[in-house]
Amino acid sequence: MKRRLTERWIDSVKPPKSGQVDHYDTAGPAGFHLRVSHGGTKSFGLWYRRNKRSKRWTIGRWGALSLSDARQKAKEIDTGKLDPAGRRAVLKRAGDFTGLVARFLQKSRRRLKPKTWWEWMRIAKKELRPEFGRMAPHEIRRADIRAFVEQRAERHPYQANRILELVRVVFNWGVKTERIESNPCAGLGKPGAERSRERILSTDEIRLVLKALNKESPRTRTAFLVLFLTAARKGEVVRLRRGDIDFASGLATFRNTKSGGDHVIPLSKAALEVIESLEGDRLFPGVATLDRAMPDLRARSGVQFRVHDVRRTVASGLARLEVPHEVISSILNHTIKGPAATRIYQRHSMIPQMRRALERWAQELERIQSRKAAKVVSITT
């Protein structure tokens, strides 16, 4: 049935005795109609074509939507500006925000660094799920994200920036995989002003952390002790194999270091003893295992720190023992300017000084741990 629809006529039209009747509007785009059901429901709809297929979309009920607004929306759909049925299918595939994040993390696990993946898992569970978890992605507005991260930034600016980073990456992935249509946080700047970290553990904090390590598995505990005894980076320690250690000379070779190439460092007697207690060629668990151990280690020790803070703490401790700057730099494997051959020679020429410095530091750790803590297991066991 075709006629020019008017609001007065829509009010007066009677429902059919059974089924439903579509009244097509001659003043609107082709396919625009009012559907009247036998129960008295009146709703606007539109038949339109996309990709050579005919689709019907219910625009809205009469009363909740005016005739002029219904016609305008029908025109937008008819001219191709909107594909509501396609949009509904996209939203259905996306599910809620928790599901979108879970699918992103599942698909991304192999290409992400273990540390990044586990941190994003924690943020998703602790931060995003309580705030946005049950919302559909298209329901999350830019203003919602801004308010949430700005509130977090008041006390934890670094964490707020990491939250925004994950939200942005998840939405970008959703758009790329056609699960959602747009990224609401596109263009949002970091809410928190980050400062470079200068965290150094105090003497009391070192003692508490070393004590808390006694609850860890032997390999995890030993990996952390080697971090404290050598100032090596976490990734360098977990890659260490038994074949990389010359127990006779007390030298360890850390492979593929951040500074480039290998780094030879003398091990103190304490470091050699804890390493010798382990069996097999692969001495330590992977980076992911150490990262997973950190929350419990922080809780047991009561010390809020990151793994990299240990390296900074050792450097500070060596300086406190009046170890020369160039020796500390050699231990830390900081870049030395000049030709590669010169750098290698300087590293090896420093080994005696590095050995004395790390031996003194091991003794200092022993003193720190034993003071007012007689029941604590020695770091050399």
Describe the secondary structure blueprint for this structure:
Elements: E1 2-3, H1 7-12, E2 20-25, E3 32-37, E4 42-50, E5 53-61, H2 67-78, H3 84-94, H4 97-108, H5 114-132, H6 142-153, H7 157-176, H8 203-212, H9 218-230, H10 234-238, E6 245-246, E7 251-254, E8 263-266, H11 269-276, H12 287-301, H13 307-320, H14 325-332, H15 340-349, H16 351-370
Parallel strand pairs: 1-2
Antiparallel strand pairs: 2-3, 3-4, 4-5, 6-7, 7-8
Helix pairs in contact: 4-5, 5-7, 6-7, 8-12, 8-16, 9-11, 9-13
Can you tag this structure with a few keywords?
381 residues, alpha+beta, Double Stranded RNA Binding Domain, DNA polymerase, domain 1, hpI Integrase, Chain A, 3 domains, five-stranded mixed beta sheet, three-stranded antiparallel beta sheet, 16 helices, rod-shaped, disordered C terminus
Characterization of this structure:
The structure is a single chain. This protein is α+β, with helices and mostly antiparallel strands. It contains 16 helices and eight strands. The protein has helices at residues 7-12, 67-78, 84-94, 97-108, 114-132, 142-153, 157-176, 203-212, 218-230, 234-238, 269-276, 287-301, 307-320, 325-332, 340-349, 351-370; strands at residues 2-3, 20-25, 32-37, 42-50, 53-61, 245-246, 251-254, 263-266. Strand 7 and strand 8 form a beta hairpin. The radius of gyration is 33 Å and the shape is rod-shaped. The N and C termini lie far apart (91 Å). 29% of the residues are buried.
